[in-house]
Amino acid sequence: MKKVVIMLILSFLVLSCSKGNTQESSGLEITEHKEKKVVNNKKVNKKSVENNIQIPEKEKIAYLKMAAGYLKDENYQEAKGYYKQLCDKNVGEACNKLALIYKDGLGVKVDVQKYYNYNKKSCDLKNFQGCADLGYAYEIGSGVAKDINKAIKLYERSCKKDSGSACSNLAVLYQKNGKNSKIVTELFTKGCKLNSGKGCYNLGISSIKIKEEPKDASTTLNNQKEEVKKEEVKKEEPKEEVKKEEPKEVKNSLIYLEKSCDLKYKEGCAFIGNYYNQKKEFKKANKYLKLSCKFKDYNACSSIGANYLNAKGVSKDIFQAMSYLSKACEKNIMIACSNLGIIYKTKSKPDIIKAEKYLLKACDAKIGEACKYLGDVYQKMASKKRDKKEKKVFKEKEQIFYRKSCNLNYQDGCKKVRKSK
């Protein structure tokens, strides 16, 4: 009898310990996995997402925060891994973020089909930002046939659910279709209040007009040579003009544009940068142009490069200028290529090979000044050749590019043509 009682007690103790251990190993504190990260003072385990475990709400939020942290730190593979696992668990927000990773090519190849597919799943899971981005896919035909009517319906649905980008995109389509301007403004206003950079941008540009940036590089380089010479003597930054009081409507527009830029909407940063550039408030201009360049507006990279070259709002810095101009030229901003080629041609130790490369690229894009300087390059090459045949080849090239420059209405090129006759 005593043996039976002892066996029963031992069995009870074993069962109790086993139950306690099972409870201890559930949730976030799964001790068998080594990889852990702290989010809001809780240890979050990546393996619990990978295993087929239903994710509690608190844990889902923790994973989303962790993935967002990786995304902010540009650790795209880790971010993608978490978002993929969460999307597989039908977390709509994660599917939307995953779609954006494929849209922008963050650590992966750009894949418009995956952009569409993940937004479709996100929208089906009633994530309205996913629906807004799905609308954008239909608007531009990204991964799916273009369908403006479907885009409008998705934008309308998402805007009602307070997606700022949906309100702004809807306003743009309404504007194109001649919708009542009051409705359009209301949508842009709602979008801006919901932190849509596009909404703030469109509200901002309504009261400010700026001149279009010139397509020919001559406007920057003609003045550059004189200013660089002065800069070498004085070594001072140019004085900025006296600031005039802005009208109230312009002040309000600037507030919207600044918010747009703060929201990383590159067009907003570029617009306000060009506005201050044209007002000759170069220090302010440079601040916004640098941000716009950082957000991959390569025209802005070209403009800030020219400002470093001309000592506008900054001390003259040839290396910074070349860095920004190279970045812009790589993305086929031809003014930048022309300016870069001229730097290589005119600097104290010329690099004729690189000068020819960049000037030829810009000249082929019909920038008259680049063609003229390319003519100068071949003139220099011809002067160094002793062989008559080689000299003749370069002289012919010289004249071809001077004439091309003149045909593109670049007057210095025409002068070179007249001198050679």
Report what the structure shows.
Helix content is 71%, strand content 2%. It has 421 residues and is an all-alpha fold. The protein has a two-stranded antiparallel sheet. The protein is elongated. The model is unreliable at 1-44, 46-52 and 215-236 (pLDDT under 50).
**Biggest sheet statistics:** 2 strands, antiparallel
User: What percent of residues are in strands?
Assistant: under 5%
> Got a strand count?
2
Q: In which range does the helix fraction lie?
A: over 70%
Counted by DSSP, the helix tally is 22
Distance between the termini: 127 Å
Task: Write out the strand line-up for the largest beta sheet, numbering strands in chain order.
Answer: 1-2
Query: Quick check: average pLDDT?
Result: 83
Low-confidence stretches: 1-44, 46-52, 215-236
Quick summary of this structure?
This protein is mainly alpha-helical and 421 residues long. It has 22 helices and two strands.
Structural key phrases:
71% helix; disordered N terminus; 421 residues; elongated; mainly alpha; 22 helices; single chain; two-stranded antiparallel ribbon
Please describe the topology of this protein.
Blueprint: H1 2-24, E1 36-39, E2 42-45, H2 47-50, H3 57-72, H4 76-88, H5 92-104, H6 112-124, H7 128-140, H8 148-160, H9 164-176, H10 181-193, H11 197-204, H12 218-234, H13 248-262, H14 266-278, H15 282-294, H16 298-310, H17 318-330, H18 334-346, H19 352-364, H20 368-384, H21 388-407, H22 411-420
